[in-house]
Amino acid sequence: MNLPSSSFDLLQPDIKSSRCWRWGGQLNDLRSQVIKEICMTVGVLAQSLGEDFDSLVGYFFQPLLRLTGVKTLVMSQAAHDSLLKVMEHASPAAGVEAVLSQATTAKGPKERARCMEYLSLLLDRAATESLERHRDSI
Questions:
Q1: pTM confidence score
Q2: Contacts of 61 (CB under 8 A, 6+ apart)
């Protein structure tokens, strides 16, 4: 269900304005249904756009990672599922960059463990050459 690149070019201004407009704030919402819906939306976007989603990985990774550590299971599971889709469909290089930037600053042990889980998934997908610049961090 990947969109052609020309479709992404048409959608990109809307996605970026939406990003600044609402999505970041909605990931801080306390209502589990709102969180669940926005997580599903981010997952569908990642799946549909594939590597074209790379520019948005860094924006969504931190708030979604934070949600994986909350005690409300509906919210943490939705965020985890969303991040799995992002890690599956975005390029490994973009994902590794986002994971490594948060792995050292994540406060909770659950969040740090999730970072290692996502890093493992990305390393399984990645070609060694593309990760050479992250060698020291890994």
A1: 0.76
A2: 83, 86, 98, 99, 101, 102
Using alpha carbons, select from 51, 59, 49 the residue that is nearest to residue 98.
59
> Rg of the chain's alpha carbons, rounded to an integer?
15
Query: Alpha-carbon distance 14 to 4, whole Å?
Result: 16
Q: What's the token pair of residue 62?
A: 């931190």
Q: How far separated are the first and last CA of the chain, in Å rounded?
A: 32
Q: Residue 34: what pLDDT?
A: 85
Q: Compute φ and ψ for 30, nearest 5 degrees.
A: -95, -5
90, two tokens: 């975005």
What DSSP state is assigned to residue 20? I
**What are 27-71's pLDDT values in tens digits?**
666 778 888 988 998 899 899 988 888 888 888 888 899 999 888
The CA distance from 89 to 48, in Å, is 8
Q: What is the pLDDT of residues 127-136, one digit of tens each?
A: 665 666 666 6
Look up tokens 């934070």; give the residue. Answer: 66
